[in-house]
Design a protein that fits this description.
8-stranded mixed β-sheet, alpha/beta, Rossmann fold
């Protein structure tokens, strides 16, 4: 493969997934670590990507940029599936569970449709549609109202008012980004406000976030790291992130995309 072809392949991968790791690119393209780093330098100098430690991210990923649901749904699918399977194991029949908007929580919804006597509260049009299509008589779905965001979340004062009247056993919270300083964040101010109400309404907070969310910071914080009772990510999570999260969250669980039955507890 010529350098130009290789760089185009790298650029397409970064744009498709939002980021790429050097180690993954070395394995996929069959070239050396140094070659990949040179390619990243070339792309960065042209303003096509942004170099970060260990890889690259797409340009224009500011704190208020909010990809649509369709764009996010094709990213990190194996990781989201593994995380969703692990999260479903925490849900018991006869409980009230809140699911925030997001493609990981949407993936989780598919694993919850067979749990009997479940009450689901959500501000996600996409999540509610999963349960609606399943048509399970033994489940109750409460969809809050409000303004619809690019991620198909219903947010704003109507959603906040509805959530304030509710109490749930567990909140499954999807996030846009996470780091030690900012905690769990979103690029949408109204969505942050709505999700903070979901956090307040829940006895237990379970955060679902694949490894690419580490180091990304949205404009508004939904919860601090220490507020998470359980954090579920995947085995692609870097060692520094594992260490930082283990020190802050109640329990860190890592799901293996290669074997969704295998979960490593940190």
């Amino acid at each position: 493969m010529l350098a130009q072809q290789r760089q185009q392949a790298i650029l397409e991968r970064v744009r498709r997934n939002g980021a790429a790791r050097v180690a993954d690119l070395v394995r996929e393209l069959g070239v050396s670590d140094m070659t990949i780093r040179r390619d990243l330098e070339v792309l960065a100098e042209r303003g096509l990507i942004q170099k970060v430690h260990g890889g690259a991210t797409a340009t224009g990923s500011g704190s208020t940029e909010e990809p649509g649901f369709a764009a996010k749904s094709v990213r990190q699918q194996p990781e989201k599936e593994a995380i969703a399977r692990r999260a479903a194991e925490l849900v018991r029949p006869g409980t009230a569970v809140a699911l925030s908007a997001g493609t990981t929580t949407w993936t989780l919804a598919h694993h919850l449709v067979d749990i009997p006597e479940l009450t689901v509260i959500t501000n996600s049009v996409q999540v509610a549609d999963v349960f609606h299509r399943a048509g399970r008589a033994g489940q109750t779905v409460v969809l809050t109202g409000g303004v619809r965001t690019p991620s198909d979340a219903l947010v704003g004062p109507v959603a906040v008012s509805a959530i304030r009247a509710l109490n749930v056993d567990t909140l499954m919270l999807g996030v846009h980004g996470m780091n030690v300083r900012a905690g769990f964040t979103t690029p949408n101010l109204l969505e942050a406000e709505t999700n903070r109400e979901l956090v307040a309404a829940a006895q237990q907070l379970v955060v679902l976030a694949d490894h690419t969310k580490w180091g990304t910071v949205g404009i508004s914080t939904m919860a601090k790291l220490e507020e998470a009772d359980v954090m579920i990510s995947d085995t692609g999570l870097p060692e520094d992130a594992r260490s930082a999260l283990s020190d802050q969250v109640g329990t860190l669980l890592l799901a293996d995309p290669a074997d969704t039955a295998q979960v490593v507890a940190q």
